[in-house]
Each structure stands twice: as C-alpha cells, then as structure tokens.
Design brief:
By secondary structure, this protein is of the alpha/beta class. 40% of the residues lie in helices and 19% in strands. The longest helix has 23 residues.
C-alpha cells in the first residue's frame, strides 16, 4: 500500500545518508500521460537536480554523485518510465540495489483513469510508447499491467485524472516538498526604453510614456527614476495617482492568481521612451507594493538605464 502524504514528505525530506552527507533522491514514474513532466518541474522549482527519461541502470550513477563530496548534489529527482524500453524492466532491481547501498529513493507514482489518458493523447496527438502502431487503449492497458509492481512499491500514488498541471505541481510541493521548501514565484520588474525595442520575454508589458517626462528638465535628465526628485516629478499631478489606483489593485489580483496557477516566473516589463526615468519610477513603486508578499520574490532589472 502506498504511504500517506505525510510519510511521503518525510521520506523526501533528506533522511538518508551517503558518504556521511544527508541526501535525497526521488524517482518519478507512472502512466504515460499522467503528468510526469509537470511533476519533475515541481521538483526543479524546489531546487532539485532533475533528469527526465533516465534509464534505470543510470540511476545508480546518481548514487555515485551523492557519494562524491565535490559534486554538490544532495537532492535529485529523476523520471524513469516505459520510454526506456527493455531497460525499464531493470527498475525494480535497481531500487533494490540502491536500498542495499544505503540510498533509498522515494518513489512517486502518477496515474490517471483510462478515459483521461485517452483524451490527453488525443489532445497532444502523440503515440503511446507501448502502442506505436496500434490503439492507444491497448497501450494504456498494457502499461497499467506492466507498472503494477512499481505502483505497489510507491511511497505516494497520485491520481491526476482531475488535476491541471498547476494543481499537480502545488500538490507535490505541499505533500512532498513541504511549504517551507517550495520556491516562491520569481517576479522580475524589467524596465526598458521603447526606442531600443521592447523585450521579448515579458509576460505583461506596461507603457508609461503618458506620465510627465523628466528628460526635458535639465536638472533631472542625468538622474534615474530612483532619485526622489525624478520620482516627485513623474508622480506629480493626477495621472500617476489614477494610474496607480488602477494598476496596483490589478496586480494584487493577478499575482496570487499566477501563484495559484503554478507559475514559477513572471516578468512585468515597464517601458518609457528611454528606459531611464518614468519606467524605473513606476517599477520601484510596484516593487515597494509587492516585495512584502510571502508568495513572491521581487527582482528589479533596468535594461536601458545606462544607455545614452
């Protein structure tokens, strides 16, 4: 019988030793289409060294990494499944060998009902690894039978039939990593100048060129938007107040919504003409509003501030 979530979390908390060091190895396996890619993303966000589609016999090499003091690898998560072909048959023996060597992996098994798996394969139009030329259902049933011994061996079995990718990642974070180890969403406030072109990696882009422009004030031109004199100039009048009055409540709604969805990185780009004054003032105001939250880590990046 699979362990309870609390016992699985304890098993994944680094309570095994190799070479005198506390180590942690998680094996992710289960049905094709059940969400193993989302699962390993959750561990990667949690700071784990991650490898997808690793043949079982190569998992033992991770044990050697753990034992090597200079490797720096203390937490790892690997996906091993039927994509490994004939090599996958060795997985149970590899688990026995690792345990005999004093390194007991935590096994996370992901499954879903047949109807859900069929729907997911139809959506992605991918072939099932056990039915490359046949019916998807045949592959699903053959895989379920093949994986039965591993399911019995698992520390935690998760049914993902009704879970979105973001929900699955959150559940893994809560049940296996613990909230204290879950990475906060990384929020980057990226300032830029439109005259140098907009950034291509922004999730949200704000154009603040409607605000008063300090570039045309001789005393303010050499300064940046972090200077109090520039900030006072940019935020003078009613436009800035009305803008913040709409923007900040919107971000208070959006940020936790993105966190709940499972997003690990969010980039908000703020642009003015040159990227030196107005964009930086606005970005700094957003930073001061959001940096006290316990669900995000806020970073500032000024792309064009030092350009002429």
């Amino acid at each position: 019988m699979a362990r309870s979530p609390s016992r699985a979390r304890e098993a994944a908390a680094g309570n095994r030793e190799a070479g005198g060091r506390e180590v942690n190895l998680v094996l992710i396996t289960g049905h094709s289409g059940a969400g193993k890619s989302e699962a390993i993303a959750a561990f990667e966000d949690g700071g784990y060294f991650c490898v997808d589609n690793l043949p079982p016999r190569m998992i033992g090499s991770l044990g050697e990494l753990f034992r090597h003091d200079g490797s720096g690898v203390e937490r790892a998560a690997v996906v091993s499944d039927v994509r490994g072909g004939d090599y996958f048959d060795d997985l149970l023996q590899v688990l026995d060998d690792l345990q005999a060597d004093g390194l007991r992996p935590t096994v996370l098994f992901l499954e879903a009902d047949e109807e859900t798996l069929v729907d997911r394969y139809k959506e992605t139009r991918r072939r099932h690894p056990l039915a490359p030329e046949g019916h998807i259902v045949d592959g699903i049933r053959a895989e379920r039978e093949m994986l039965a011994p591993l399911r019995e061996r698992a520390d935690l079995v998760m049914d993902t039939s009704n879970l979105s990718g973001g929900t699955l990642r959150r559940r893994i974070a809560e049940e296996m990593l613990g909230r204290h180890e879950t990475s906060k969403m990384a929020l980057t406030l990226l300032t830029f100048g439109f005259k140098n072109g907009p950034p291509h990696d922004a999730d949200l882009t704000l154009d603040v060129r409607f605000l008063p422009n300090p570039h045309y004030v001789d005393d303010l031109r050499p300064l940046t938007g972090l200077d109090s004199r520039v900030r006072d100039y940019v935020e003078s009048g009613t436009q800035a107040g009305e803008f913040y009055g709409r923007l900040l409540p919107l971000l208070e709604f959006l940020v936790p919504a993105y966190v709940t969805e499972g997003k690990s990185h969010l980039t908000i780009a703020i642009g003015c003409t040159g990227g030196r004054h107005r964009s930086i003032t606005v970005a700094d105001r957003i930073r001061r509003e959001l940096e006290g939250r316990d669900d995000v880590v806020v970073h500032m990046k000024h792309r064009d501030a030092e350009l002429d």
